[in-house]
Design a protein that fits this description.
This protein has about 675 residues and is of the alpha+beta class. About 25% of the residues lie in helices and about 30% in strands. The chain contains 15 helices and 39 strands. About 0% of the residues have low confidence. Keywords: ATP-binding, Biotin, Ligase, Nucleotide-binding. InterPro entries: ATP-grasp, BC-like_N, Biotin_BS, Biotin_carboxylase_complex, Biotin_carboxylation_dom, Biotin_COase_C, Biotin_lipoyl, CPAse_ATP-bd. This is ATP-grasp domain-containing protein.
């Protein structure tokens, strides 16, 4: 039996496994890199072993270091988490050879699954529908086609090609990107991504757990999952589960995983792959089935039998969203920094099946967590479970909208808009949902009046904080002036550029008048501030209460609270209208050096992965110059115009910060 378990992963995944281990009496061992020394998963483990370094290759993916950590800590079992190691046959074999229990499928099965074409052939021989495979681009009979890497996971390296003229170049580019072979298969438009979670034991029993709808994706990676699927009826569910069982047995799979299918609008489906891990969306399955899938996974790893005779009954509906540190409006650019506040209201439980409908939060972060560039950008998974799909979507959207997520940019607003979208509510989703509905990329706080009120609240909260710290005249209301023409002003860098807010208070602490104006960045100097006429008065706004973190306003007879959290020079403002981050612009800014003309700077922190040009080389507009790797994704840097590479101060392997110089082009 498993006595002491090392989890070779971090964050939310490790915390999830530890939660079940505490329940069933298994001791736990965490591993951690240099940046993760104070991470929540480290504090929650019984034992923790330091892996010197910061990059994944030197720490969480270092097989030798992980095995040494397990042996040093006295672990007799290893759980690989849900990432790359969970699908690595060599790591699985090394654990088995070391005499420890491997929590996953046999190494031989993992070797088969790593070869995507061989996997498809075995499944096809078992009479499970699969899409045709073309390893030679010359044999592709029609378009569009999808280029896929022959090995690897997570949707990386996939590319749609719609005509023959670009196929050869796209295949060559994908081969360079993934560093290996690729194949093509027909691209099914408007298809759904459906997966069947399964549990299989060594005695041959295979139990499916219904299906999950995973069609709302970005970069071929899921961000919204639910069960049951609104497109699957009882008959189709039986067909999918039957095909999943056949595929599992054909591949000799044992453990917890998911069989993934593509489903078209006519109800036809095709096998995609068998993912041999406990996937990130397992929580929705736990909600509707009532089973702890981690406990079952550990039971099977110990050689036990699947403890149920068949598929469990589905209870209600569950939806999960992945809250990620990334900016959907800017090509999903990952974000790093300090998470100053992470608070989600009305959460009923964490990391384990809920006893009754409600909200569950599985998070790998807390207030003060530092989001680095080396790992996946997912911060947490928020799950709602309710009797119906409509109730689950409404509950989840409301909790997300009211959450306080301060310090890094996130995809929260997009997730709320997806959950509230008419097409999503109607169940009309497929893998092209985000492409068809660009309106979901708009921020929740988008109206002019809402932005103005947020600026006013930030200014009043800042004034209250300064007044509370003032050593003299503490009884006077902040912003009150003997001379009515004198207004208190502050300038914020908002979502649409600099905004100046001015306000006057009366002797009773009420708001006598206020105004807001957009400011041209070129006019941001001390002489121009506070000189604009009071042109936009709002007499129907009353300040009911104002302190450093909470402002209550009465707008035309409607009262509501605005929460303000200041971290450094940024005010994070949360109101019923939405959330916004406002950076206060200093009235006396320090001079900063100007970048050389035609400089290309790093859009995010990351490591330089590939450099494809040299100084003096002539490049075309749009040509790929180099790539940055951050949060498990590769980000290309292209030439904005034709020119000559004048300077190239970075080399492969170098780590750069946001705003750091990557290259200088002399334009033609």
């Amino acid at each position: 039996m498993i006595r002491r378990l090392l989890v070779a992963d971090r964050g939310e995944v490790a915390r999830r496994v530890f939660a079940t281990c505490r329940l069933v009496g298994i001791e736990t061992v965490a591993v951690y890199s240099d940046p993760d020394a104070d991470a929540p998963h480290v504090a929650e483990a019984d034992y923790a072993v330091h892996l010197p370094g910061s990059t994944p290759s030197a720490t969480y993916l270092a097989t030798g270091a992980l095995l040494a950590a397990a042996q040093r800590a006295g672990a007799n079992a290893v759980h690989p988490g849900i990432g790359t190691l969970a699908e690595d046959p060599e790591f699985a074999q090394a654990v088995v050879d070391a005499g420890m229990i491997w929590v996953g499928p046999p190494p031989a099965t993992l070797r088969t699954l790593a070869a995507k074409i061989e996997t498809k052939n075995l499944v096809a021989e078992a009479q499970v529908p699969v899409l045709p495979t073309y390893t030679d681009p010359e044999t592709v009979p029609g378009f569009p086609v999808l280029i896929k890497p022959a090995t690897g996971t997570g949707g990386h390296g996939m590319r749609v090609v719609r005509d023959a003229t670009t196929l050869a170049e796209a295949v060559a580019s994908t081969r360079r990107e993934v560093g290996g072979d690729v194949f093509c298969e027909p691209y099914v438009s408007n298809a759904r991504h459906i997966e069947v979670p399964i549990l299989a034991d060594a005695q041959g029993a295979v139990v499916p757990f219904g299906e999950r709808e995973c069609s709302v994706q970005r970069r071929y990676q899921k961000i919204v999952e639910e069960t049951p699927s609104p497109a699957v009826d009882v008959s189709l569910r039986e067909d999918l589960c039957r095909a999943a069982i056949v595929a599992v047995r054909a591949l000799g799979f044992v453990g917890a995983g998911a069989v993934e299918f593509l489903l078209d609008s006519e109800g036809d489906f095709w096998f995609l792959e068998l993912t041999p891990t406990l996937q990130a969306d397992h929580a929705v399955t736990e909600c509707v089935s009532g089973y702890d899938l981690v406990r079952l996974q550990l039971l099977v790893a110990e050689g036990g039998n699947v403890p149920m005779p068949g598929p469990p009954a589905i209870r209600g509906h569950a939806i999960e969203v992945r809250i990620c540190a990334e900016d959907p409006a800017y090509a999903w650019l990952p974000a790093s920094g300090t998470l100053h506040r992470f608070a989600v209201p009305d959460v009923a439980g964490q990391f384990r099946p809920l006893p009754q409908p409600g909200l569950r939060l599985d998070a790998g972060v807390t207030d003060g967590s530092v989001i680095g560039m080396h790992h996946d950008p997912m911060l947490a998974k928020l799950i709602s479970w309710a009797p119906s799909r409509q109730e689950a979507a409404r509950m989840l959207a409301s909790a997300l909208a009211r959450a306080h997520l301060h310090g890094v940019v996130s995809n929260r607003d997009l997730l709320v808009r997806v959950l509230r979208h008419d097409a999503f509510r109607a169940g009309e989703v497929d893998t092209g949902f985000l492409d068809r509905h660009p309106e979901v990329f708009a921020p929740l706080l988008s109206s002019v009046d809402a932005v103005r009120l947020s600026c006013l609240a930030a200014a009043l909260a800042g004034a209250a904080a300064r007044r509370a710290a003032a050593p003299v005249l503490g009884s006077l209301p902040s912003g009150w002036r003997n001379v009515p023409s004198g207004s208190q002003t502050a300038v914020y860098d908002g979502p649409t550029g600099p905004v100046e807010v001015g306000y006057r208070m009366n002797r009773r602490g009420g708001l006598a008048g206020w105004w807001v104006r957009a400011v041209d960045p070129e006019e941001l100097d001390l002489a121009g501030l506070g000189q604009a006429p009071v042109a936009d008065e709002h007499p129907n706004i009353v300040v009911v209460h104002a302190d450093s973190d909470r402002v209550i306003l009465n707008v035309q007879g409607i009262r509501f609270a605005v929460h303000v959290h200041r971290a450094g020079d940024v005010s994070y403002v949360d109101s019923p209208e939405g959330s916004v981050a406002l950076r206060e612009i200093s009235r006396f800014p320090l001079p900063t050096p100007e970048a050389a003309e035609s400089s290309l700077i790093a859009p995010l922190p990351g490591a330089v992965r590939r450099v494809l040009v040299v100084p003096g080389q002539r490049v075309r507009a749009g040509e790929l110059l180099l790539t940055l790797e951050a949060m498990k994704l590769e980000h290309p840097v292209h030439a904005p115009a034709a020119g000559v590479v004048a300077s190239l101060p970075v080399q492969p392997g170098a780590e750069v910060d946001t705003g750091e110089l990557l290259a200088v082009l002399d334009p033609e």
